[in-house]
Structures are given as structure tokens and as C-alpha cells.
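Protocol step 4 of 6: structure prediction from sequence.
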Amino acid sequence: MKRQLSIILLTVLHLMGFSQNPIGMPDIVNYGNVQYGGGTHNWDIEQDRNGILYFANDEGVLTFDGSYWKIYQLPNKTIVRSIEIGNDHKLYAGGQGEFGYFSPNEQGQLIFKSLKEKVPEKYRSFADIWNIESVGKAIYFRTENHIFQWHNDTIDVFSSPSEWLFMGKVDHHLIAQDKSKGLLKLTGKTWTPVVQNPLPEHFVINSVTQLAEPRLLVSSSSHGLYHLDHNKLHHVSSSSSIKHVTHIRQVDPHMHVVSTLNNGCFLTDQHGKPLNHISKNNGLQNNTVLSTHIDNNGNIWLGLADGISFIAHNNGLKHINPDIFDNASGHTSAIFDNSLYVGLASGVFRLPIVTNSDISTAQTHFTPLRSVWGQAWGMNVVQGKLLLGRHEGVVEINGNHTVPIADGKGYWNFLNWSSNSGDNNLVLAGNYYGISIFQHQNGQFRPKGSIPNFHESARFIETDKQNIWISHPYKGIYKIVPTADMHTKETKLYTHQEGLPSTYNNHIYSIKGRIVAGTEKGIYEYDATTDTFVLSSFFQPIFDKKYIRYLKEDTQGNIWFIEEKKLGVALYNGNSYTLLYIPELDGKTLGGFEHIHCIDKNNILVGSQKGFYHLNLEKYLTKPRKQHAHISLVKAFGKVDSVLFGGYFGEVNADNKQGEPLRIKHGLNSFHFEFSSTSNKNNEHVYFSCYLKGFEDDWSTPDKKTERVYTNLPAGGYVFMVKTQDNLGNESEIAAYHFTILPPWYESIWAYMVYILLFISLCYLLYKRHQRKLMEERINFQKEQEHIKYMHQLEMDKSEKEIIKLKNEKLEIEIETKNSELASNAMHLVQKAELMSNIKSELFKLKKELKDDMQVTDFNRIIRLLDTEEKSDASWEQFSVHFDAVHVNFLKRLQETYPRITNTELRLSAYLKMNLSTKEIASLMKISPRGVEVGRYRLRKKLNLPSHTNLFEFFSGL
């Protein structure tokens, strides 16, 4: 009961307060300050030829390119009140105590250049710049007390003795409102009145728009809308309901948008009559509209006191969800008896139709059918009547009245049926527990039972004049063959065993005279010859193997479908089909309870989660949509990041192309590109395709990504290109950015020159090395030859030495032999001396015993002979000769070295050389051993030898 009272109240309010609104409202997209990263208030809006939007925001100039928001602050970081794109293509901005223009630097980033220093010093103290206008080659800035004219690099000042209240532009002339002098026009340096009659008291103009010349549309916050015609003001009475106007913009020659301070905005005709009211009640973030702008595609942007709103005015898609619907989901609709009936979760509503063109523009109102509150499932026109299936049963709808037909269970939908007996008055009603049969007689529907032996929910039901087909979400597809009296001849269940790809998620439809099933793997068609379902050869080229949940054929032969949660249509041109998706409705249809009502090409109704959407297909297809691709940011990154390009090749409104390609160090050879389409809201129907010429072979597959990254690109020249394409196939021109990656330092020209020098040096060094090597080889060869010669000589010397050694050994042997012989001779002499001494001794003994003097004389003679022999040196002479021969003239060399040496000392030296003992020497020299020692002592003195020197060793080394 509370719900019914709520809907009644909403109906009354709908009729009383919003009578001017059409039933179809444009889609509204809201942007909050958190999303765009700026302040809350947005005081002014501009758009350049490339589609980039600019907002005068509390925190600076805010830009939006369709994908990315950026904010540019003034030097004093104050509120920006006004902006204007001048005829010189610069973006002018005015804030608190500051004004100037934004112009891109070498990297294409917007930089603010102040003009305050150009103002004469006595006028430099001012507050807000409330308006900026571009007229000819001059730019005008309005403060409360002064208007500054920027022209030819100088600023002239127009001061007001009272206060400047407004400034605008009409027909290439500057107009301004002076508080005391009224509305004035500037001609040259002179202000002339525009209005003959005095302005109403407290009449403050806030906008002026040109109508059919010479008429102007003037707005005042306190007085509303006025026409200025032939220098006279006339109140626009048809707009008297619009209060607290803040701005007017012309949408097209027949429509204006009027924004207000506390009631949203109004769309009016050229005479000021309100046609549509857009406010917080139907989608805006708030009702305080500070600025408006009509973009390049005819859509509306609103700068609010808290946020920004986009209104897709110039679109063939409208949302039908008046307050009376209470945001209920839309399940079904039907056209019957010049009325549109819609069934929602909250009930059924009726709309009288007074036009056969675009229903969404109807300014009549939905009224509820009060007898059928609650869930409405399906409506069908059968037997010339409109039947409604509800959770509580079936009713017939006639105008605002309903006639109950059956109750006790829920009903889904209704189909006409002609039985084999010729009864054409039957209606099949799919319900929660099977299929009911109603018979239409005498203008009334009467229950006639149900299809026997079938008790499943029949929400999806079709017929082929012989069979009844029902699909069940998780059991498969049923075929019922009825008899003439509507009994069941056969019931068969088709699952994956009968050709379907799966038992689950199959939906039965009759399209192009064919019984087809939308499945998870494409559209399958019933084949009567095999009594199975097969992949349709007719639909497969159109839909491939897409998961189609819903199918509907319109009167033009187009096939509407829902693929998962995406709405689309297969457009028929008489020969073939082309798929077109409607991305604006992605995810907005009612899953599991999809509904598409194809009235005609101007009117397609789609059930949604909140009410319905109306699509004017003809307008949607034919309305031009300007596509524009924009590269907004290029960053190179390596060890550090560097912004190479900020989005502008020239002034903001200039159609400039890139100049010389940027040359980038090899260390920054990884790139991040950001791009967008400035064609429409949210880019939800725009796809991007990229191509890096010099690296890639072809364009990328179109997708919705608005950035692209390339890493570790090799040195060389590149062109990054991006283009956009919408769902209608419209393509933009290619946006391109040229750049060159310099080779690494080791691949630069200087490096190659160094490499050449190094190569020459290396070759020279190699040559010198080779020369050195040859020289070394020659030297080594010579050394080797000398070595060989030396070794040969050594071998020869070795042989000679061997020979010498052998000779020496032989000589040593000979010397030893000689020494032995000398020793033997010496021993012989010793023995001879001893023998002779012994003989003398014996002779002396015998002499003593002799008596005969003759014998004594003879003995004396013999003894004398022996003495003579003992004293003879003959033996020494012979010995010395042999000794010198053996010892290489030892005695001669000793005597030459030491001339003072005596013969006795020579004999002693010889005996010492032979290493004879003292005793043996004493015998040979016939002296005592003591005499030998004395001789040794004297010999040392003669030879100047110390006492510890061994004479044998000394003589051996001599």
C-alpha cells in the first residue's frame, strides 16, 4: 500500500512540476572533483579545434582530452574565473589579480605567461577577471572597475566611473554593461549605447546570445530572459518559469540551453519556451550551474558549483526512467491502441502516443494502471487484444483498465496458436508450471486447460505451426507435438546428446522462419531431417560462435541480439549483415530478463536495470561523429624519466604539425605514450589502434587502452601513430609523433671516427708488431743459427775438450807415470846413496881390519871413488831434465819467477812438488831432516810466502 501511495504521489509531482520534460532523457555523465583532481567550482568552459576541453577551475585551468585530466595553475595559484581561446589560438586565462595566456613550451607543455606587467602601473591592483572576450586581433579582460584591451603587445585600459557588470561579444563587436550607463558597444575606442529604453532596476546581464539578426537573447539572474530587438528589450514571457539564470548557450538554430543558479538547466526552443529540464532529480550532481558549453559534437557540458556534468544531447540514445518508475527494472513493453505500455518490477504504465516519429521526445506522461501493481513479466498483443503476464496471473489491458483472465500462478508470455482442427482462436500462455491454453470467443479469453504432461517453467516459448518449442535454462530444449484437440502427441527433450553444445543456457527463438537456439557456442538451428540441432550455416557467418542470450528480428530485417551483457544489432543491407554494438548500453540490460521491442527504425525500446532505453537507430547511425585522435603525453624513461611531449605542437587552437623529429639520447630508449579521443564522453564506443613505424610491421588490434609502452628500442628513426575508430566504423585521422633515438656513444659518428683512428693505429701497431716480429724472428733465427753454431762449436769444443781431456788424462797418466818414474829414480838414487853409504861403511870396517898397506891403499881408492860418486851432480842433472819435461818447465819457470833462488832450493822445490816426505828429501839431498825444515823456512822467505801456506799446494798452482 505504501508503494502504491508513493507512486501516486510521484505521478502528481510529475504532472505538476515537470510537465515540460520529454519522456526520454539524455545520458548524463558526472565527474567529481576527486576524479578530475581540481577544485569544486568550474566557472567557464572552452574547447579547442582538436576537441580538448578547458575549465576555469578553483585551482587553475583544468583540461580534459577524453581520457586524461590535467590541471595548470596560475603563478599566484588563485581561482581561475574565466578563459577564452583567442583568434591568435592562445588560451587566455584570468584569475584573482592575474591574467595572461597559456602557450606550449618546446616540449609541448602548457606554460603560463603573465600579462600583468604590461598593465600601466597605476591599474595593476585589481581583483577578479570575470570575463575574457576575443574580438578581432584584440583580447579583452573585465574586472569590476576596468576593461583591459591586449592588442599589438600593449594594454589599453577602459575604466568605469561606477562598475563594469558584464562583458560579452555579439556579431564581432564587444559589448559591456556599465552600472550607470547601461549596455554599451565598443567601436574603435568609443562606447555607444545599445539599448534605447532604460534597463529595469537591478538588471544585471550575465550572457548574450545571437538569434536571427538583429535579435539577441539576453539573460539576467534577477529578471530572466529578454529579447533585444532593434535596441529595445522585451521580456520572454514563455520562459517566466526559469529563474536565477546564470548563462545561455545556443545548442543549434532551434534550441538553447539555459543554466540556472539553483535549478539545473533548461533546454528551450528559439522562442525561450522550455522543452526539457535537467536537474539533480534526473542525473546532475547538483543544481548550481556556473557555466555551459556546447562541444564540437553538439553535446552539452556543465560547469557546476561542485563538479562537471556531460549531457549526451546529440545522441540517438535516451533514457526513459521518470520518477514515477521509481528506478524499477524494465521487463516488457507493447504498442497497443495508440499507446505505449511498459511493464516494470513496480507495475504497468501507459503513455499516449501522439507522434509516429521519435517516441522519446513525447512530452505526455506515463500514468500507472492502478489495478496491476507489482511485478509485470510479459505483454503480447494476441487475438487483437493486449495481454499482460504477471506474478499474480493474467489480465487483459484496455486503456487504463484491466480485465482479469486467470490467477493462481505467474505467467510469462503469450502466443497465437492455430490447431490442426482449424481453431485459430487459441492462445498459448507460458507460465511458471507449463503452458496454459486460452480460447478467445465473443471478445473474451477463457481458460481451456494446459498442455498435458509438461510441467516445466515456459518463459522462452516459440512455435513453428506444428510444434511448440520451450527452452529451459538448465535442462535443455523441449519440443511438444500437440494433437488437434491440444493433447500431447510427443514430448522430446534436446540436450547435448541431440547436438546442442551444452544442456545449459540455451534460449529458443524463431528468426527468419527458423527455429534457432542461442547457446554459449553460437546459434544452433533445428534440422528436421536428423531431428537434431546443428550449428546454423545461416547465422554462423554473422555471429560466429558468440554466446547469444537474446534474439529479436525487426521489420527491416535487422537482427537485434544480446551477447552476454552487450547489446548489438546485425544490420541488413539487402544482401549481407554487419554487426553493430551499442556500447553505451553495455552492462545496462537486465540479465536473465532481457527485452528488446523493435517498433520501427526510430523507436527501439530496451529493458534495463532502471526503466528503459530508447534508441533512435536512424539518428544513431546517421548523426556524424567527429573522430579525433590526440597524443597527450610522451615520456622517455631509463635511469630517470623525462617528459618529451606534453600534447601540443603549437598554440592550443592551432592546427600545427610536428616540426623536426626530436633526437633522444640512447639511454632514454624506453617510451610511454598516452593518447585519447576527444570525440565524445568516456570514449566508451571508441577503440584505439597503434603503430610504431620503424619497429612494428602493422597496426595493432583495436582496443580501449589509452596508453602504450615500448622498452629498449634500438637506435633509429621512429614514428608513433595512433588512430581511433568508433562502433559505427568512423575513423579519425592519424595522430603521429616522430622521434629519433641516437645511437649509444660507442655508435656515434665521433665514436666511429675514433674507431677508424683506433683501427688505423691498430693496423699500424700490428704492422709495427709484425715488423718487430719479423725482426725478432730474424734475430731469433740468427740467434738460433748462432745457437746452432754455438752448439756445434760446443759439440766441437766438447769433442776437443774430450780430446784435450783424453790428452790431459793421457798426459796426467804420462805425468803420473813420469812422476812414478821420477819417484822411482829418486828412490833409486836414495837407495843408491844408501847403498854406497853402506858400502863405504863396510869398506871402512874392512879397511880397519886390513894389515896390508896395498890393500889399504886400494880400499882408500875405492872409498874415494865412492865419495866422488856421492858428490857428483850428474844424477840431479839427469833428474831435473826429466822433471821439467814432466812438469812443463817447472824449475825453469820457478827460477825465472824467483831469480834469487839457489840450486839447492830448486832441488827442494822439485821434491816438494813431488810431495816427497821430509825423510825422503833428506836422503836425496844428503842432509838431515832438520836441514830440510830449515830449507823449507828459507824457501818460504825467498818466495814471500806466509808460514801457514802449504808449499805443495803453492807449487801445484804455479
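Step 5 (inspection) to follow. The longest helix spans residues 749-849.
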